[in-house]
Structure formats: C-alpha cells, structure tokens
Amino acid sequence: MIYGIGIDLVENSRMDRIIHKWGEKFIRRIFSAAEIAYCTRYAHPATHYGARFAAKESFLKALGIGLGEGVKLNDIEVVNDENGKPVLVLGGEAKNRIEMKKITKVHLSLTHTKNYSTAVVLLEHD
Questions:
Q1: 24 to each of 1, 52, 71, 81, 109, how far by Cα in Å?
Q2: What is the extent of the structural domain holding 38?
C-alpha cells in the first residue's frame, strides 16, 4: 500500500549559485562524502547535486513533513546500486521515521536536463 509520494524540481542554475556563494559549508551540510565524490566527477556538478537535493526534498514530502521537522538532509543519501539505479540510504531521524511508520519500500527516480533536476520518491508500507 502506498504511504506517500513526493516530487521536487530544482533549477540547476540556482543550485550552482548557492554552491558558489556558500561553497563547502553548504555542500558538507547537505550531502554525504559519497554524494560529493559522485557529483564532483562530472563537468557540471550542480546538475547532480540538484538531483540529489530534489531526492531529499521528495523524501520529506513523501513522509508528509518539511525541512526543520526533525529530519536532516544529510540523513538522506542517494547512492547507486550495482546496476547504477539510484537508491536512498537513510540514517539518523530519517531512518527512525521510516521504521516508526512501518515503511517497507522506498522507491526513487531521478532525471535531469541542462536546466532542471527532478526526483520522485514513493514510500510503501504493508
């Protein structure tokens, strides 16, 4: 049964401006070391940061909460499985919420163009 669905859209140029303004302070506050390593290997890292930021926001929306309601964005990590499929790895309060709400499956889809990055998260429970 579906518990919740979330979607988010990020303007890549806005993400690029934020990164240039706040630099490492912003990046390390939001993204894991693995996410940073993944994004910085591309010519346009803001596109990949944008997709991961959208995934984090989408997860919160699927839970029915917003920023500042207990889950930190760096508790939500996007990694690729052995086939390259993006998946969410949850820690801290994000993991606690999933367990508390008895969510059994977390689905993630990402896409991006030159201008936009988007993500959809679907949460299921029995």
A1: 40, 16, 21, 26, 26
A2: 2-125
